[in-house]
UniProtKB/TrEMBL annotation:
One annotated Gene Ontology cellular component of this protein: plasma membrane
Transmembrane segments: 20-45, 57-80, 100-120, 127-148, 192-211, 223-245, 329-353, 365-386, 415-438
Main location: membrane
Family classification: Belongs to the cytochrome ubiquinol oxidase subunit 1 family.
Name by which UniProt lists this protein: Cytochrome bd-I ubiquinol oxidase subunit 1 apoprotein
EC number of the protein: 1.10.3.-, 1.10.3.10
Pfam family for this entry, one: Cyt_bd_oxida_I
Any one GO molecular-function label of the UniProt entry: metal ion binding
Annotated source species: Rubellimicrobium thermophilum DSM 16684
Keywords: Cell membrane, Electron transport, Heme, Iron, Membrane, Metal-binding, Oxidoreductase, Transmembrane, Transmembrane helix, Transport
Topology in the lipid bilayer: Multi-pass membrane protein
Subcellular location per the Swiss-Prot or TrEMBL entry: Cell inner membrane; Cell membrane
GO biological process, one term: aerobic electron transport chain
Length: 483
């Protein structure tokens, strides 16, 4: 399908790039914050040193990923004003308050307790340090709560009225705005996806170090074994739950955004008698309104979406052409997400089988599969968001405000140059940060795992007095820059 790279399309590409790059980090840190709280709690409860080793190992990764997530997301708020000023003006009275609450509650909670979590174990006592770990974990979930509430309102708007003079969406019922019809399903599905993303990254790292220890003829550390075991428990128990949550979310989407589901399923034709097939493969031809080379399972789509075989299932032939989303993108991104979800369930079942046979830590094939599936959560959440957001087109506020009418009056070259700048800077800065995270993960956790303040001895000063070296400190002489 040809793409017209006008200012609106370039603005869409720019926002898609920045939000996709940004969301990789929260998708990891939401789950990792809770994992760190669990590890710290297990250490305080059992006093088994492996949990403390794992906490110190992963907290450094969390600090880096959290920082990159915050910085990479800052520019998105500016894009509302620069590229999407009409949308900001029209929807601002509704979405402005929840986004402010996200900063005032979630971000302040995270920022306020992050330093205690990272550096305060030996300074504030174990009880307050544990409370800080829980506060940071809750902060990440509260952040997801508010952001997903805003996003869900754009899909299923509720609790508003439209001012006839200005065309603005004005709030009438804040409870209906925040808890709009798709929000509970999207929140549960997204947060669970974040937990699975973390689990498979942790499992992939654990599998890598189990394989390397086997190759070297070494005995893997207890911390490495524990890390892998906890990740596989998460995969085995939570991945099937995610399939159920995804099914509930899909049924809710069918009710409120049927065109999106039609595109996901590749249903160009209606099935008034029911028994709609579930297409596993096909090449959508939106111009001809057909699915070429279709390979499907008869009646299964009806069973999944309607939970019966005879209910009518409409197709895209009931939707005007100018209100249809880009079918090919939605069709394939949905299959990537679901396919990875099924592989996650499969790996979880495999790990249960290996655990039952007593071979969880002695199965190279399982460990290789875990390594291969390490980034699967990140890919799956990106595919899921592509399905969600592209499937909403051609609207920003579904059914009410079109994307073409939401953009700022900018020239295409201005948006194009800023897009190029974002791509270069993001890959340079965050690529370096990601490389350093991978470097940290390339070695296994060890008994003498350094704490953060063992690695970072103090603040870096650009001028004035710097911390003195040991000899100068003993003599009571400060050391200044340059001498």
């Amino acid at each position: 399908m040809p793409i017209d790279l006008d200012a609106v399309m370039l603005a869409r590409i720019q926002f898609a790039f920045t939000v996709s790059f940004h969301f990789l980090f929260p998708a990891f840190t939401i789950g990792l914050a809770s994992y760190l709280a669990v590890l710290n709690g297990l250490w305080l409860w059992t006093r088994e040193h492996r949990y403390l080793e794992l906490f110190r190992y992963w907290v450094k990764v969390f600090a880096l990923a959290f920082a990159m997530g915050v910085v990479s997301g800052l520019v998105m708020s500016y894009q509302f004003g620069t590229n999407w000023s009409v949308f900001a003006d029209r929807a601002g009275p509704v979405i402005g308050a929840p986004m402010a609450y996200e900063v005032l509650s979630a971000f302040f909670l995270e920022a306020g307790f992050l330093g205690i979590m990272l550096f305060g174990r030996d300074r504030v006592g174990e009880g307050l340090h544990m409370a800080a770990c829980v506060a940071v974990a809750l902060g990440t979930i509260f952040s997801a709560f508010w952001i997903l509430s805003v996003n869900s309102w754009m899909h299923t708007p509720a609790g508003y009225r439209i001012d006839e003079a200005t065309g603005q969406f004005l709030p009438e019922d804040w409870w209906a705005i925040i808890f709009n019809p798709s929000f509970p399903y999207r929140l549960a599905h997204t947060v669970t996806a974040a937990y699975l993303t973390t689990a498979f990254i942790v499992g992939g790292v654990g599998g890598w170090h189990l394989l390397r220890a086997r190759r070297r003829g070494e005995i893997p550390s207890q911390a490495t074994r524990t890390m892998f075991s906890m990740a596989m428990w998460m995969a085995a128990l939570v991945a099937p739950v995610q399939l159920v949550l995804g099914d509930l979310h899909g049924i809710n989407t069918l009710h409120h955004q049927p065109a999106k589901v039609m595109a996901m399923e590749g249903h160009f034709e209606s099935h008034p008698e029911g028994c709609a097939p579930l297409y596993l493969f096909g090449l959508p031809d939106q111009e001809a309104q057909r699915l070429d080379y279709a390979l499907g399972i008869p009646c299964l789509s009806n069973l999944i979406l309607k939970h019966d075989l005879t209910s009518p299932l409409p197709g895209l032939d009931t939707v005007p052409r100018d209100e249809q989303p880009p079918v090919a993108i939605v069709f394939w991104s949905f299959r990537v997400m679901v396919g990875l979800g099924l592989l996650m369930v499969g790996l979880g079942v495999w790990s249960l089988w290996a655990r039952w046979r007593g071979r969880l830590f002695d199965s190279p094939a399982l460990h290789r599969a875990a390594v291969a599936m390490g980034p699967s959560g990140l890919v799956a959440v990106l595919a899921g968001w592509i399905t969600t957001e592209v499937g909403r087109q051609p609207y920003t506020v579904y059914g009410l405000l079109r994307t073409a009418d939401s953009a700022s009056p900018l020239a295409a070259p201005a948006v194009a140059w800023s897009l190029v700048a974002f791509v270069v800077i993001y890959f340079a800065v965050f690529g370096a940060g990601t490389w350093y995270i991978l470097r940290l993960l390339s070695r296994p956790p060890r008994a003498d795992e350094p704490r953060l303040h063992d690695v970072v001895e103090g603040p870096i000063r650009s001028a004035g007095i710097t911390p003195a070296p040991a000899e100068a400190a003993r003599q009571g002489r400060p050391q200044t820059i340059g001498g």
